Structures are given as C-alpha cells and as structure tokens.
Amino acid sequence: MNKICYGCGAKLQTKDATLRGYIPKEKENSSYCQRCFRLIHYGINNETNAPKSITSLINSINKENKLVIFLIPFLTVRSDIIEIYKKITSPKILVISKIDIVPRSIKYTNIKNYLTSYYQIADEIKFISSVSNIGIKSLLNYLSENKINEIIIAGESNSGKSTLINKILEEKKSTLSKVTTSNTPNTTLDFIRINVSKDLNIIDTPGFILKTIELKSLNISKKYIKPITFQMKSGETLQLNSSYLFFTENTNITIYLNNDILIKKYYKEIFFEESIDVPANNDLIIKGLGFINIKNATTIKLHNLHSDLLEQRPSIFGGLNE
Predict the structure, then answer these.
(1) Residue 116 backbone zone (phi > 0: left; psi -120 to 50: alpha; other: beta)
(2) What is the spatial distance between Cα 160 and Cα 182, in angstroms, rounded to a whole number?
(3) With a cut of 50, which residues of the chain have pLDDT below it?
(4) Among 196, 178, 204, which Cα is nearest to 57's?
(5) Which residues pair with 92 in a beta bridge?
(6) Which of 7, 83, 213, 310 is 20 to 30 Å from the Cα of 287, by its Cα?
(7) Which pLDDT value is given to residue 32?
(8) What local confidence, expressed as pLDDT, does residue 10 receive?
(9) Residue 49: predicted pLDDT
C-alpha cells in the first residue's frame, strides 16, 4: 500500500494496529487511517506516537522554503509561540486566528500596531475566523495577487490549521475530502501535501506542542467567547476550574477565557503556593486558555496554577475596552 491518510498524513498500512497509519485490510480503499476515522466520527483518539520536536519541525519547515502561514489564536498570543514564529526563516505571514473574541469597538489595526510594536513583528499580519468567514477571502486574494501557489500552514496545536484548510477547500470549491480537525493536540502527525486547485497547493504540518494548561479536561466549546468583568475586592479569590487566584488589592478585571471554564469569585481560606505582582492595566496570560486584564496594580497569590504557565504584558486593548 502506497497511500497516505488524508487526515493526519501518515502512510497507510494494514499490518500493525499499534503503529501510525493503520487501517483494517477490508477498508484499505479508505482515505483515512483507523485513528482519524474514529476521531472524525466518534471523537476517539488513541495516540501512540510522540510529537515532532520543536527544533526538527522548524528545520523541516525552513527546508521547504515556501511561504509560511503561521496561525496563532487571538486568545493564545504570547511570547513562547512568537519566539517559534521568529525562528522560521522562510517567507512568512503571521495570521491571528479565532478573532471572533475581539470586541467590535476594537479596530484590528490597533491590535496589529500592538503586535508589531510589543512583539517586534516585521512581517505581514492578517486576521481570520474560519467559523465566521472573516479574512479568508482576503488571505486568498493576497496569495493570488502575489502569485503564490504553494504555502505551508503552521502553528501551535489547536491553532485552527486544519479548520483553515477546510475553509480554503470550501472557498476553492475543491472536491477533496476534509482534513481531520480536533481539539486533541498533535492531530496532524506528518506533513500533508494537498493539491487544492490548479493554482494552489497546501502543506499542512504537525502542531507545535508547548507547555500549557491541560485542555483534555475541558469541554472545548464552539461558542464565541464572552468577556466577563468582575470587581475583585482585597481578600477575594477567583476560581478558574480547579485553580485559584487571590487578590490582595481592589481591582476591576476582565476575563477572556473559554466559556466552559468554571469562573467564580468568593472569599475562600486556601493554601497558596506562589504569588506574582501585576502592574496596572496588564494582561495576565494563562498559557493555553486566554488572558485576564488586571486594571489596578495588585499581588495575586496562586493555588494549583504554577507561575511558569503565566505571562504578563501591557493590555493588548490598551485600556480601550476594559
């Protein structure tokens, strides 16, 4: 058998069910391996292969020397994924995906200027939402106007790479099957080369795996995320699922996290392992989940939330919306 799985890029094989690309012999004409078939239809993922290392994946992308469309979801923009983006030496575009969260009062140009200045991004920056069809045609027009007919889609796991590819297939009226999409990290196991149309080829890549809050315990929602504003009083605790943040000073906060996270505030006696100092009008980024804007300077004590999973930056909205 000399076929690859259209979902994950693994070479299809019928000999060993414990190895990637396995497909039962009676279904060897299928376009998907057993893993991807179960993932698509039942949400079951029995992953047995370790993800590619960050360095090897960057090297493989650079070796292709094609235009890289690098996706970062708006809620998970942070320094460690930006550092990976900067290590890509091929021509590239930074694409901020899942942009639906941005309040309508905030202009994309303001966010673009922030990213350019704070993260020192010198490349083209575009904004998309595959769900709401925001920016997809603009991205395709950019490729057409610049006579680019082959691109690489890259980004962190769960950044929306496969969803974007499926949207492009739809826009191009392609007859190809859809690429596997899932909230499970590392759904794509190898490079997948997709001939979308006579004027566009796409190379899909495995997602970069970084240390973030574990997502498997969450019921990841497809709903738009609604910002939540609280007035935290000195001595109050904010609960986020099984993690707790204790505020030492009065401050307003605006939470930009997944809808399905349990969010609650109250006074609670609890043991706090660490603490961090947060300046006024800073975003406290919780890696993998989103961020909280802290209006006034405060010390935050932490329980069941390690400081290495947190990052701070000046408000990405510049105080315009909080």
Answers:
(1) alpha
(2) 9
(3) 42-51, 180-185, 215-222, 320-322
(4) 204
(5) 68
(6) 7
(7) 77
(8) 73
(9) 46
Distance CA 175, CA 153 (A): 20
Q: Could you tell me if 251 and 295 are in contact, meaning their C-beta atoms sit under 8 angstroms apart?
A: yes
| Backbone φ, ψ for residue 57 (5° rounding) | -70, -40
- 216: closest CA among 184, 262, 242, 187? 184
CA 115, chain centre distance (Å): 16
Q: Residue 127: what residue type?
A: F
Q: For residue 38, what pLDDT is reported?
A: 67
Return the exposure string of 14-37: e unless at least 16 CB atoms fall within 10 Å of the residue's CB, then b: eeeeeebbbbeeeeeebebbbbbb
Residues in the chain: 322
Nearest by Cα to 244 from 166, 300, 296, 201: 300
* Per-residue pLDDT, 22: 80
Strands of the sheet with 282-286, listed across from one edge: 228-232, 251-256, 290-294, 282-286, 310-314
Instruction: Find, among 259, 262, 269, 263, the residue nearest to 236 by Cα.
Output: 269
The helix or strand, by DSSP H or E, that contains position 264, with its residue range, turns out to be strand 263-266
Taking residue 306's Cβ as centre, other Cβ atoms within 10 Å add up to 12
pLDDT at residue 271 in the model: 87
